[in-house]
């Protein structure tokens, strides 16, 4: 039974539903100009938006200003992508009277916008995964009306960003109802349940993401839900890599763990290093006086404090850098990075307490005895993750050292459980580029076939449709023989079917 929305929410959803046909019918060039206008306007209002974000989130001016740039770049990337049209997956099978299985009709397949989408924005990326962040950019590029549920951690910023986007989209001639903002968890859930909403997106905790995914799946007509949830992003460092560049690895590790107070979904939560290596000492040497960094809000700070105490109190855990957290009179937590180490046997014994994500500036070095099967570590301790990283020596990178087989097996194991495998780098800093994969098996995401960064992100909000024996006048432009939009088309001409597979005999 459909729930009745409040008058305010009913108006929002009704506007989105009414806008869907008109917005889907806009030409790619029109949508491209509209989202580029949003990008330009965000950058034009950068100073005022960043000032609000600093006050509400405690993140630094440099981080937030860079996040505005990242958001604008992703919008512009999607503008070029939607005009290029490759994401449409246009396929044309010409009619074939001599088809191997009998007469083949003319069949043409493309992707169409799913309709109105609700996006639940993130706390830790007030621009890049919030009101006009990656998910929102993908929704609009796909041609779907967008309703954003603002995050409670930065409501004023959400309203200000929404005002900038609304004005830019209206000036670009987009239909009323193309973009709207709502506040409140209950409001977001109510909209997610509405049958006029055709997909959902979310960035946040496993608990809330699972709740929303279950709601989307349990609707009378289930809808796709794309949630980015939790990840610990394990790192494996070889003995030769440590011998070759321990100081460099330690410095990069600390920078990655401490950046934005460790409140990043790609923070390296675990480093597996040979027992007795020089890495812990190199970490101590590399540690300077880290300034305190405010965590996003008091709730997150309390959760981090509890998690940190539980880890420090676990059997076998030794503090490499003790770090700390203090609370001010407003309840905000100010943290410095904590790095601990634990032998593999100790980690195995306390895995239930240690393997869970610590959202904040904390990471665990697991000391691995010589001869350990590294490829077996991932399935033993972890479910899905966004990333997995290997640090190799220059000789090991050639793939010709004595341990090359072991390293290949580790890469294969990582590839089964993460969305992105990195070499000699750090997982924080997700490049906004066409080939990027920002997703992974559960619980990293609710749908491991999707990505929330990169041009493939658009296809989450589209669905395939095939047209059989359709007159040209009734075909989408992407499927017409004259191809007026100039999009890539995969064409299967008549007469080929009887030679399929012949080359392999």
TrEMBL record:
Alphabetical keyword list: Oxidoreductase
Domain of life per record: Bacteria
Gene3D superfamilies named in the record: Aldehyde Dehydrogenase, Chain A, domain 1, Aldehyde Dehydrogenase, Chain A, domain 2
InterPro entries with a match to the protein in the record: Ald_DH/histidinol_DH, Ald_DH_C, Ald_DH_N, Aldehyde_DH_dom, Aldehyde_DH_Superfamily
Keyword Oxidoreductase among record annotations: yes
Domain annotation Aldehyde dehydrogenase: ranges: 8-378
Name under which the protein is recorded: Aldehyde dehydrogenase family protein
